[in-house]
Structure formats: C-alpha cells, structure tokens
Design goal:
alpha+beta; Beta-lactamase; two-stranded antiparallel ribbon; disordered N terminus; six-stranded antiparallel β-sheet; 400 residues; 10 strands; globular
Length: 400
C-alpha cells in the first residue's frame, strides 16, 4: 500500500470516528433536556385553563423551555371565536411593547457603531420637541424622560377606535404627548411611557437615514433568522397567516367584560417603534435568548441593557423589564397581550401570548406566564443562583 493510500485510509478512519463521536455527543445533548412528565403536562394544562377562565381569555399560545425539567409548547382555547379554531404554536400575534426590546437593541447597536451616545441630547436629533435639550437618549431608553405618555390621552384612543385602520405619523404621536406638560424633570423618576420609544424610532431614522422598520428588520430580524417576525408597514392592517384573532370588550363594555369584539386588523402605525411588531412564540424564544446573551451587542452595551437601576424602580433597564427572578418584556395593544421572560437561575425561557386586551387587570399575560412558571418549576425565588435577588413581580404588574 502506498504512503498516500495509507494516509487517506487513516484520514477516512479518523473522520468516521469523529462523526461517530459527534453523533454520540448530539444524542447526549438531546437527552440533556428531559421529557416533561405526564403529571407535569397535566398540571400546566390545568393551570393555563384556570388562568384563562380567570381573565376570560379566548385563546393562548405558550412556550416553556426549561432544560432541567422539560419543554412545553401548546395552544389552548380559541384562536378565532367565530370558527372555533384552536390556537397553534405557529400562529402570529401582535406583540405590542415587546417591540421596545427590539427598538432599544437597535439603538444600542448604533452606540456600538459610535453613531450616537447614550448621553446625547434629544435636541441633537429631534430639536423641535419642548425640553429636548434636557433629555438624553438614556432617559428615553430607561423611561426617565418625564414626557407625558401619549397613550394616556383619551382623545388619542377616541380617534384611534373611530378608525383603527387609519395611519399615524410619529410626529403626530409625539405632539399628543407634548401638548401635555412634562410629568417630572428628566432623570428624576421612572414612568413607563410609550412616547419615549416613538422618539427613539425617530432618532434611529435620523442617524441611519433609513426607516426604523428597515433598521430593525435588517440588523435584528434577519440576523437572527426570525422567519415569522415582522415590523409591518403603516398601511398593513392584516396579519400573516396563520394568526390568532385579537379581542377587546365590545363598545361600552367594561374592560373585564366577557362580551368581546374582534379587533385583529388595524394599522400598527399608532404604536410604531413602541409596539407595532408581529411575531410567534418560537421566534420570541430565539429573540429572548439573544437579549439574554447579548448576541447582537458588545459586552458593554449588553451590561448597560441589563442594568436595572433607574430612579424610583429596579424594574426597567434599557428596553428590558426586570421581574426579580426573571427579565424580558411584556406587551399590550388592542386585542393582544404578550409576556416573555428568561430565568437566569434555571437557564429557562417562558413565553405566553393571549388574544385579549384589555382585560380585568393590566398584565394578564404576565400573570398567566408566572403562574405557569410556578406550575413548571415551583417558586423560582427559592432557586439558588438567581441573578436578580429582589423579586418584584407584583411591582411589574402595577407599573405598566
């Protein structure tokens, strides 16, 4: 046998052994997440059913990935009350303020590229806003700008509900806010405010020369291969099929009413970079892991995003909510309520999407999500190694 033949044979055997080893390792990796027990699955199903009944939610899609316990991805109830069709894990929903985590990450990417700084004044980019010289990019990101929240203006909702398909310009939304006096001086306090994230969208466009939709799509959605995630155009009132229909109380009914009307189709422009995006439970799992690991950011910006130290609260970083034992974001827009959280102590991800908003309380999806986390893993506060030792789940529910 020639030296070349012996060499080729040796290489062939080495590759074969390597492939066998890799296959074995892959099998171990797959086996590392145990199958969820029948009792565990039944407990989750019962918990979800009880929570949906409590908040009178027509339909829900849930995804829970707990490496030491198991995985549960399921739909429950009705995605469409007209046809009775059941929700599917592949159903699209409007994710509301979860959009803010995308917007914030896009801004932090610009900081990484040295195209702007967290300490830049708003007046550098949107000079016509009253008080813009006193507000910084960081104030907008961590909800300490003091601007009035435009979605607290009843006239906005009256106009929106009169024609949900009408398109809105970002400047219109900001002018609604600036028609009201500032709530407090910039940097002094924390207040959850959608106006901040509309302004961040305007900054993205001013800095890049592209639409915020293009920037978020190209630099986040496509980079992570989020196949079912969209930042829809202002004129796109439909949802990509399949989708869960969204419901809200019928005209004149209180927020907790069981008498619901379909409000699935409307222009996302009324919420834009504060709440316009559409996604699925599977894509949100990928997205939340990217946020948790800082995949799209430098180490410095990742640390800044997860620094929960704003005045008057520890529940908000830079486009990320802190629930003590978990971090992520929730979202509420007409017809839809979303909740996605990562639990560092368990390396676990939990996403709950429901097709009703408003409900009898703010944050119904958060309440359901954390009830399911409790059913899956017990009390996460008692787990050793939690990154955030000061659980403030109740505060998260009331501060939205």
């Amino acid at each position: 046998m020639s030296t070349l033949s012996r060499t080729l044979r040796t290489l062939t055997l080495s590759v074969a052994v390597l492939l066998i080893c890799l296959a074995a390792l892959a099998g171990v990796a797959r086996a590392s997440t145990p199958a969820l027990s029948a009792a565990g699955r039944a407990n989750l199903e019962a918990t979800l059913e009880a929570q949906m009944a409590k908040y009178q939610v027509p339909g829900a899609v849930v995804g829970m990935w707990f490496p030491d316990i198991g995985t549960w991805v399921a739909g429950s109830g009705e995605a469409d009350t007209g046809s009775g069709a059941a929700p599917r894990p592949t159903d699209s929903v409007r994710i509301g303020s979860v959009t803010k985590s995308f917007t914030a990450t896009a801004v932090l990417q610009l900081v990484d590229r040295k195209q702007l700084a967290l300490g830049d004044q708003l007046s550098k980019y949107v000079p016509w806003v009253p008080g813009a010289r006193r507000v910084t990019v960081r104030h907008l990101l961590n909800m300490t700008s003091g601007f009035y929240n435009f979605t607290d203006d009843q006239a906005f909702w009256d106009r929106y509900l009169a024609d949900p398909t009408a398109t809105w310009r970002p400047r219109q939304l900001v002018r609604i806010a600036t028609a009201h006096p500032a709530v407090f001086p910039p940097g002094r306090e924390y207040m959850y405010c959608n106006t901040n994230y509309i302004l961040l969208g305007m900054i993205i466009e001013r800095v890049t020369g592209k639409t915020a939709r293009q920037v978020i799509t190209n630099r986040i959605v496509r980079r992570l291969d989020l196949e079912h995630t969209r930042f829809p155009k202002a004129t796109t009132v439909t949802l990509p099929a399949p989708y869960m229909h969204g419901y809200m109380p019928a005209d004149g009914e209180p927020s907790g009413s069981a008498n619901l009307q379909d409000i699935s189709l409307y222009s996302p422009s009324a919420f834009w970079t504060a709440g316009a995006m559409v996604s699925t439970v599977g894509d949100l799992r990928i997205w939340l892991r990217a946020v948790a690991t800082g995949r799209l950011l430098s180490k410095r910006m990742h640390a800044a995003q997860l620094r929960f130290s704003t005045p008057n609260t520890a529940s908000y970083g830079l486009g990320v909510m802190n629930a003590g034992v978990a971090f992520g974001h929730s979202g509420e827009v007409p017809g839809y309520n979303s909740s996605m959280y990562y639990l560092p102590s368990l390396n676990a991800t939990s996403v709950t999407l429901i097709n009703r908003y408003p409900s009898s309380i703010e944050g119904a999806a958060d309440q359901i999500n954390f009830a399911l986390i409790g059913a899956m893993a017990g009390d996460p506060n008692r787990r050793r190694g939690s990154t955030y030792a000061d659980p403030i789940v109740d505060g998260l529910m009331t501060e939205r």
